[in-house]
Amino acid sequence: MEEEIKGRVVVLGGDSSSAPELEAFHLPSADQPAHLLHHTHSVPQSPEPAAATESKSPPPPQSQPPPAGGGSDGGEAAKKALPPVALRQLFRFADGVDCVLMGVGTVGALVHGCSLPVFLRFFADMVDSFGSHATSSDTDTMLRLVVKYALYFLVVGAAIWGSSWAEISCWMWTGERQSTRMRIRYLHAALRQDVSFFDTSDVRTSDVIHAINADAVLVQDAISEKLGNLIHYLATFVSGFVVGFTAAWQLALVTLAVVPLIAVIGGLSAAALAKLSSRSQDALSSASGIAEQAVAQIRIVQSFVGEERAMRAYSAALAVAQRIGYRTGFAKGIGLGGTYFTVFCCYALLLWYGGHLVRRAHTNGGLAIATMFSVMIGGLALGQSAPSMAAFAKARVAAAKIFWMIDHKPSIDRDGEGGVELDAVTGRLELRDVDFSYPSRPDVPILRGLTLSVPAGKTIALVGSSGSGKSTVVSLIERFYDPTGGSITLDGHQLKDLNLRWLRRQMGLVSQEPALFATTIRENLLLGRDGATQEEIEEAARVANAHSFIVKLPDAYHTQVGERGLQLSGGQKQRIAIARAMLRNPGILLLDEATSALDSESEKLVQEALDRFMMGRTTLVIAHRLSTIRKADLVAVLQWGGVSEVGTHDELMARGEDGTYARLIRMQEQAHEAALVAARRSSARPSSARNSVSSPIITRNSSYGRSPFSRRLSDADFTSLGEGLGAPLQPPLAFRSFWRLAKMNSPEWGYALVASLGSMVCGSFSAIFAYVLSAVLSVYYSPDGAFMDRQIAKYCYLLIGMSSAALLFNTVQHLFWDTVGENLTKRVRERMFSAVLRNEMAWFDMEENGSARIAARLSMDAQNVRSAIGDRISIIVQNSALMLVACTAGFVLQWRLALVLLAVFPLVVGATVLQKMFLKGFSGDLERAHARATQIAGEAVANVRTVAAFGSEEKMARLFEANLAGPLRRCFWKGQIAGSGYGVAQFLLYASYALGLWYAAWLVKHGVSDFSRTIRVFMVLMVSANGAAETLTLAPDFVKGGRAMHAVFEAMDRRTEIEPDDVDAAPVPERPRGEVELKHVDFAYPSRPDVQVFRDLSLRARAGRTLALVGPSGCGKSSVLALLQRFYDPSSGRVLLDGRDIRKFNLRALRRAMALVPQEPILFAASIHDNIAYGREGGATEAEVVEAATAANAHKFISALPEGYATFVGERGVQLSGGQRQRIAIARALVKQAPILLLDEATSALDAESERTVQEALHRSGGRTTILVAHRLATVRNAHTIAVIDDGKVAEQGSHSHLLNHHPDGCYARLLHLQRLTPAAHALAPSSSSSSTTAAS
Fold first, then answer.
1. Residue 907 exposed, middle or buried by CB count within 10 Å (0-12, 13-18, 19+)
2. Is 612 exposed, middle or buried (0-12, 13-18, 19+ CB in 10 A)?
3. How do beta strands 429-436 and 447-454 pair?
4. Pro residues composition bias: which ranges (predicted)?
């Protein structure tokens, strides 16, 4: 590799605004209304003056990354209500195979749909033969004809068997195939967009997850089973009218006159449902974003006891969707009730007119009943198609969002084939008169006339204060953006003229906040160069000083790093990011604060490797290390959007106080000298080392033993509902779960009772209607015309009354069932979310409990429960009422025939239950596979800059596609089984009709019954058999709902290992003294139990004093803070507060006594005021917020912003620079006024002036115990006690002077020596540590 390395180009970079990862979370504060979630914000950032600049010139602009939800036209276009797509557009991803499948499925649906009207025509001919021969006493002929038609029924049943298999299996498979292709294209399109797209549109990670998960499911549902159903019902509708015209065209014409009215009612209903569906989806997307943000930032939420605030925000967002759901139920009821009203009135007219035709001998009773039956089935089929039409309305809205992304053309197209590809790169970079403003803030100039030349083979360092535009230069070189004015050239060629893919292949980026994906270390490294060998991977890791810690992990290079790399410390993540860039062996290397998260020893080794790597290359350095800057051939000082000074280090220093660079260096040296003086003074105090070290005489307290972190079955997987495919939910368990769910719905039992009454009435209509028709049929064969007229008039009035009742009771049942369902869904989601927030940190560290997966489960499980248990219960109640009425009528009229018909019911039931059992094995596994793919897509979009910089779009898409292959394969077999099972069930149903008709004829022949009674029994029970079959074909929904119900209760019932609300726990005193001690602590992270972090660690922080923790990266400094806050419990040993084990205190009360400033300054997507006030649980006053901001040296820059404290910070605070985010995080901790302050690299991103101000404020506040973690030893010199942690123990402990005097060759002295080589150890430009607080720091 060394031969290839020489003569290449390197760019090092590092301003706090570089490459912010677009983590899309949008959680309002407790007092911020949920409707603000979709407001677009365009918050131009006002300048923050350079730290040591006293110039009276206008302040410089902020060089900051734009917001994730910028307020430009692009954002409005993305977020405004998009018009639903055309119906044919839903099939835009169908290929040849899909066309064949859809063709076969359509034929199957048509045959299946036509089979019932054809059966009815056979039935009508049979009735005419039956009735005429029964009255003429020619029973032998009658029996022969009945047998003939019974065989016809078997033929129809066989046709239904084959056609239903084709319909179900083909539509299911093609739906999965097309939706898979659509998901892949969507992710391709999202990753193809230029970075400015995510700045200026309101596209967030949660939106991508929602589109790939929920929206894609809506589209898939519509173009698979729902479309098959629609064709089926429309075929039934059309064939019904065809049979009607051929049987009695006069009756058919009369019916045709009312069809437009039915169509109008259906159209109005569908339009209303589509509008409500769109609004409901938006509200649920907001709630999903809130949940995802809270889970992704769970450490901040739990540390600041913000669980209740997160719950309130989530509940408020769900309440919006709940209210829309109420209106949806009313609209659905009115629409379906209006359809039935029209259909029944139509049949009243038909019955009267049919009798008129029979009396005048225009037709006979059999043909008249054929028309009536056909029109009845056709009309009901039209009503039954309403859910399918509603599904299409939802799918068109959902597809509009997906297709908008797919069709959006990026302004900077990485896939363009055009553009120049240079044969060789010498590395001469030139920026001439460059002007630039971020697209989200076009009115705020970032760079103004910047001119900079980087000669080939030279090293140039960029320095400047926070927000001066250093990282913006890196973004422009990567062509994340194009300048608004001026030009950028590489070897004399405009960057715009170069092929973008080729250009980025010449570059390797290490962001200030390293982005790792939730896969193995090896896969993360391969993003640098796909196809690299293991030897090359290990060599790059060795050069980056990462190989040594990787091989110590249990799975070495195959270790899972967790969501966003949470399983690794910040330094470990940074080294992997550096190795990834080195593996790429790029022409241009961009290192944006690449060593900011490393301890001195690791940094020294990595820096040496980088120095070797940069030899003979053109190098652009953005750094705050004086040692790095001194090595540069040129130093360029950025100020106010331009280059104010250029020269060597010595030349710029020679300018004295007249030079900006010299003033910056002088300020750092003064800060360093002040720290030394303070350290010397502290050496006069008696060392507290002896008092600080725990006495070895104290024996270990083993009463608590080992923390019960062994993973129970319930802990193992939140996203799956049972590992085995063939692990069905046991009936007793299913019943208990259902009963528990019903009790959860107890406040709505009154609504459910009224809804059930409506469902029972609506269900009984079918049986009554069949009875009326069969009664009229017997009347048609009456020779008495006057009697016929009276009877027909009576039944017509009955039908008109039924139509009015249908309108009323359909509205009642849908309105009240939807009210029950919406309330249940909201309650389930709230309780699940509450249960999730209660879990201990180890649970969140598991890969299967990533934020994207939890958000998806909250959305889908509750919806599946509601769909199966809530929505489908109305159908069960309807069909139960139907069975009750039908069986009663059947036994009263002719009990023998009723018994025979009921005897064959188990055949139908058994066949359908068989289908249900097969379906149960696949549902959960399919959902689990989709959840994994969804997480991959969410991470790829969240880290879109890293993906773009490494050209890894195709790799991420391939990984996504691979995770969709499993569901596609399983769907094929699921379709085969479901189609065959349903077909068998239908065949057995028609066989039972054939048997029933034969037995009815046998009864008439032997004089046991007459034609009138037997035909009534048969028709009424035939309708009830259809109802029973319909109920059992809901098995897939009940399987899905049962599994979801199991998952819901599993999540709710999981007992957290660290109980936050233990009522028996002791309260923490209102103002504890703050003495903290760790005694003989052993600890390993539950996710990596084989890697011991602490071994017999003993440590004490005295009340009101400052304890500083130092040591190499990964030694466990941040783990101490995690144990203090009880994010984890030690494996053995104790953690004490004021002499009492912290496990005896109430957990929330314990956390209220501590204020945390994490390594990574995470902010919520709210205003600056809300973010600071978040620190005070009950809310902070305006004065308290300002006071805290002033103490954190943030008030000055906040006041300079156009909207001041009301400025929206963007998702994860990306509107602000790293230093600004860190100061707000410090202010958030200060406003809490906790007696114990935990600072985890809290000032690593601050320049010297800000750090000095913050340190003074902390010193003035006094009286609190402070435990700080720092790599920069200048930060810890003034600490009362310094503890050096190494190899899981306290290697050295004491004050600064004590350690130097008593351990001159110890760890601390060695670390200090390393940093003395770089005396200006503080930031010329801020660094931002993005280490996770989960892993050993």
1. middle
2. exposed
3. antiparallel
4. 57-68
